[in-house]
Amino acid sequence: ILLISLLPLYREREGSERERMEEEQLDYVLVPLGLLLFGLYHLWLIFTILHFPKRTVIGINAESRHHWVFSVMTDPVKNGVLAVQTIRNNIMASTLLATTAITLSSLISVYVSSTSKSSNTPSQLVYGNKTSMISSIKYFCILLCFLLAFLFNVQSIRYYAHVSFLATTPAWSENKESIEYIVRNLNRGSLFWSLGLRAFYLSFPLFLWIFGPIPMFACCCLLSLLLYFLDTTTSFTRNLHCHSLKQVTKSNDMVSAV
Q1: In this structure, is the dihedral angle defined by the CA atoms of residues 65, 71, 74 and 75, taken in order, positive or negative?
Q2: Membrane-crossing residues (predicted)?
Q3: Are 34 and 216 a contacting pair, CB within 8 Å?
Q4: Mean of the pLDDT values across residues 11-30?
């Protein structure tokens, strides 16, 4: 009779243990799948930028900066103020993101150090692995994202500051190789700016990972879809861009001929 009365309790305990194991396994399945989806999208984006740059916003913007530098360098004395102000705006934007990234990194470090000293019970909002090791990995990944965003934006500031000196050098206006060097530095600054933004974007699904692997995976899918619409161009945009660049090229040729 005692064994019969204990049998339902044993089955209930076994069922709860199996459910807990399945809940913990979600982190090992959904989190890598979400990161893999996010990584595959960016691999496709890199391939498209290298082989079909006009299909991406990054490629079109790089070409626009190329023509902008040539337009400015036709008369660096006259256009120097405009060039410096434009680059200064980019420096201020990169500085703001770098400051935000390092501030959030400091706050996360303080939060992790304070929570590690206190024995907090796992939150009921979290559906997934609630072990202390997984929690430490979550905060470390978020901290790493913000540190990378800080480093990328610092490199962007470095290139933009260097271009602000080069773009106002009158002696370089007649040297095409020097102008191409300025274009490369400007595009590198914009590249690090884009990488810093991607690090901020990645911090969103990692932050939702705190509440479980399901919100993290859903955020990765939604973010990849949203970035696809932000990173790609339409045929109307490409035609409009090509038409405007042809007009700029003709005007630059007329100025250089004069």
Answers
A1: negative
A2: 28-50, 91-112, 132-152, 206-230
A3: yes
A4: 66
Q: Each residue of 150-167: pLDDT tens digit?
A: 999 999 999 999 998 888
Amino acid (1-letter code) at residue 171: A
Written as one string, the DSSP assignment of the chain is -HHHHHHHHHHHHHHHHHHHHHHHHHHHHHHHHHHHHHHHHHHHHHHHHHH-GGGBHHHHHHHHHHHHHHHHHTSHHHHHHHHHHHHHHHHHHHHHHHHHHHHHHHHHHHHHHHHHHS-PPPPTT--S---HHHHHHHHHHHHHHHHHHHHHHHHHHHHHHHHHHHTT-GGGTT-HHHHHHHHHHHHHHHHHHHHHHHHHHHHHHHHHGGG-HHHHHHHHHHHHHHHHHHHB--HHHHHHHHHHHHHHHHHHHHHHH-
φ/ψ region of 234 (left if φ > 0, alpha if ψ in -120 to 50, else beta) reads beta
Prediction pTM value: 0.82
Both structure tokens of 200: 């901020």
